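fyi for ur records
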Amino acid sequence: MLANGQVMKSGTFSVGGHDWRLLFYPNGCLKQNEGSISLFLEHVSHAKTGDTTAKIDLSILRDEASKPAYSRSINEHRFTEEGLNWVLT
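which gave:
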């Protein structure tokens, strides 16, 4: 397992004309999150595409056939230069 604060990054993917990436901290991104996962959605193309609003649905699955172990939905999140990420901890 990676140490607290160490990140795994997904490849970049495109949705809605914007580029995105998932940042996964399997042992938490901050000391107070140690022992938990932290998952960020990063708006990679902000410099090119500017601010955007997105509906976000994230689920954690044990395997392809299982129901989600955890799900979270946000109807509207604004990605700005000051906040390029959305976090699920």
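The chain has a mean pLDDT of 90. thats all i got for now
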